[in-house]
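Quick question, first post here. What does this chain look like in 3D?
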Amino acid sequence: MSSGTEPERLLAGRRMLRFAGGPGAAVDRGPKETGDAPLVLIHGFGGDALSWQFNIQALVKGAPGSIGRRVLAVDLPGHGASTLDVPSGLGGVADWVVRLMDAAGVDKADIIGHSMGGRVSLLLAERHPDRLRRMSLIACAGLGSRVDAAFLHALCTLETLDQARALIDRLFAGAPPNRDVLARAFLSRLADPTARGPLTRLLDRLVADIDAAPRHFDWTQPLPPLQLIWGEADDIVPPPEAGAIPSHIILHRLPGVGHMPQAQAATRVNALLTEFHA
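> Answer (accepted):
Ran it through. Tokens below.
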């Protein structure tokens, strides 16, 4: 833990860390002293650490014969149990993640980011390249394909269970088996007035960040070893157009999968992540 942090505590399975700009919350699992860079998981807009509930244990376990891996699934500012004070831009969110890593005693990590969390991961690589070893981006916002801002605004104005069901269907490109469970969880969390203000402020900054980004991502900039994972049926952040991703970048396209590959195709995604981040 970095100097100046206050004592940590547990809240709903999360580790609570106090630091400048915090508090920050993370589900922290796995062995702390393995010599391997921990995996830091960064969720998308409107999610939280539990967006990775189908992945955390598989990633902690690692490849057959592995002694295990430390995994931290972060609640970003304005989400979950972390601070409601949202930084002024997504670059500030990336800086906040680094401060949380400091507080958790993580010097260098492998980063896995989903959707907006993918965009935050790219900014983290740009602003703090020495803190990353490898990076996986799932349905990453800001790589040139459009982002359905209307869907994100709908998350911030959610009021009924039917609206929540419709959003779940969009996320999964069809109704998942546990649709009503997910919809009720969405409604409980996102209809909370306390949560809406920070989400709306962060959405404005996300849309501004993506609008300001170049139409074609600059693949000549320094990046850590990188893989991309995309659901081919994702219409919230659609897969890149043919030829938009250089041939040296690994891109896995998953047929019939929507915007939540880590949940909808968890077994396949866990295998891809475990192999790449070994």
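Residues 193-212 form the longest helix (20 residues).
Residues 108 and 130 are 7 Å apart (CA to CA).
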